[in-house]
Design a protein that fits this description.
With 173 residues, this protein is mainly alpha-helical. Helix 4 runs antiparallel to helix 7 and helix 6 runs antiparallel to helix 7. It is elongated, with a radius of gyration of 17 Å.
Length: 173
């Protein structure tokens, strides 16, 4: 989220690429949530997978990739699809991260780790919107969207490479 949250850029993207139509902006502002709700409805599909760490990494990378593709598209319907996909990927990642935290954190640290996870969930998107605006100001919305998405994918790859225990973490059932 800190590297790739795009919401602050939606008015600029809408104005530059899609004629500034308020309906399009409204759809952009809700598309991520629609994807998240859809993923929640079908959460049984991914919550039953035995490797929540890997699921979290894939969801996080899919978030970054979907936002990169949103940054590159000039078709509003395709853009909405990428944003909905990003929202679904975010839900997959968040739910899987919660599973890893709950199952892998020692009981005596669970409250502190859950609190840190909560802070990340609340502050991350706002900091990401700040990053997006700061990058877009001297460059463009396109540069900010694409760089944010690619930085997210690179960060996920770095975490995946440096924490093999996260990739391999399995729920025994």
């Amino acid at each position: 989220m800190v590297l790739s949250m795009p919401t602050s850029l939606f008015p600029l993207v809408n104005a530059e690429r899609f004629g500034g139509n308020p309906r399009t902006l409204g759809l952009f502002l809700t598309a991520i949530a629609v994807g998240g709700v859809a993923a929640s409805v079908f959460s049984g599909v991914f919550t039953r997978l035995p490797r929540p760490g890997l699921v979290m990494l894939v969801g996080s990378a899919a978030w970054g990739l979907a936002l990169t593709l949103f940054g590159l598209t000039t078709d509003p319907l395709l853009g909405l699809g990428f944003l909905a996909l990003a929202g679904a990927a975010d839900t997959v990642s968040v739910v899987s991260r919660s599973t890893v935290v709950q199952l892998h954190t020692p009981d005596e640290l669970l409250g502190r780790v859950a609190a840190a996870e909560q802070i990340v969930g609340q502050a991350g998107p706002d900091l990401g919107n700040l990053r997006a605006g700061l990058v877009a100001a001297p460059t463009s919305a396109l540069a900010s969207l694409v760089s944010g998405g690619l930085l997210c994918v690179a960060a996920v790859a770095a975490v995946a490479v440096t924490t093999p225990s996260l990739r391999r973490f399995a729920v025994r059932g």
